[in-house]
């Protein structure tokens, strides 16, 4: 870079920040400008992502920030202790490249990017403590690597069998230990009243997600799938009250759209259920390809979206330990990640989503290097075939160079669904 013959030398950190801002703004502008009938109330989310990822704006200056490496850490406990949960799953290619120096090149891009983010120390809201559930092998090992950079990372024991009573007890114990550890670190007692209020608030946020999704079941769609991923990804780090307000505005706008019959896609656009490795901002490579090919994502089965909001904590007794046990049960039982030995729930959920959202097909993405999603594709494909549901399986990573080959496959799939739709008319 030159300015009046003076060379401004960028530090590696400045360069990484600039590259990440470029990745972020490219996707934000695509979502803002490339799709039909954008929603006005999405502006809140576009600005939020721009502030955080292009301008490094901190949202939680004066709060204790608790980093979580997966959805398995109950955010209700963190809120009840007046701290803020920050989900650390990362979607930046810049961070993925940095992470490759610390893990193997063949590792999952999500995990590499998460590690790369820590290595680059490039945080707008740096977590004070980090909790890493021992879910998939790569997340488990990533915790150790992050520890070696000098961060306070606590492993949270997580069972890989979901049905047994032993697993249930095991995870209940893990969640109690997590709450004790965080309370001790923060020097605060977990109070019944605060935990009950936090369960109520997170539950309300979940109910708003479901309310918004109702508008995706209509034959005319009010919000596209990429915007929905942005909305749910914002829940990773936003102030929960602001997120709730922005969701209420979106729901209101969708209500008006329904009255005025405004849709984001044509009637013939194939309706897609998205499943597999989670789309995490700004890696919306495949969701963008799908919607640029004139299809619309009406629902998803991923941990960066639907899985976070699907089931609510059901409490029998409002004592602290009972609430903790109910949370452990909900987080374990409701999870449909392929990390588990047996995962019939996931297949049931995909089929249920296809039926209730009247979808024409399923797109299954597995990140290259993610063994569990790769392995589980066989059983999911067989189940879809049995149900007569069209499905496209894609392996992808965070690299921008893969586009051409993926878009050919996505376009061909969408075209075949369109033909089927036309014939069925
Ligand atoms: S893919 Fe599975 S292990 Fe990875 S973050 Fe999501 S729920 Fe956790
Ligand atoms: S995509 Fe696979 S490897 Fe990556 S975090 Fe999820 S389960 Fe683990």
Structural account:
The structure is a single chain. With 425 residues, the chain is of the alpha/beta class. The chain has one domain. 53% of the residues lie in helices and 11% in strands. The chain is built from 16 helices and ten strands. The chain has helices spanning 12-33, 43-54, 75-80, 93-99, 109-120, 137-148, 165-186, 192-214, 225-234, 240-260, 285-292, 306-309, 320-333, 344-356, 371-387, 403-424; strands spanning 2-3, 6-7, 65-68, 84-87, 129-133, 153-156, 271-276, 296-301, 361-367, 390-396. The protein has a four-stranded parallel beta sheet with strand order 4-3-5-6, with helices on both faces. It has a four-stranded parallel beta sheet with strand order 8-7-9-10, with helices on both faces. Helix 11 (285-292) crosses helix 16. The longest helix has 23 residues, at 192-214. It is globular. The site of one iron/sulfur cluster has 10 residues, from loops. One iron/sulfur cluster (SF4) binds at residues 70-71, 89, 135-136, 139, 278, 303, 337, 339.
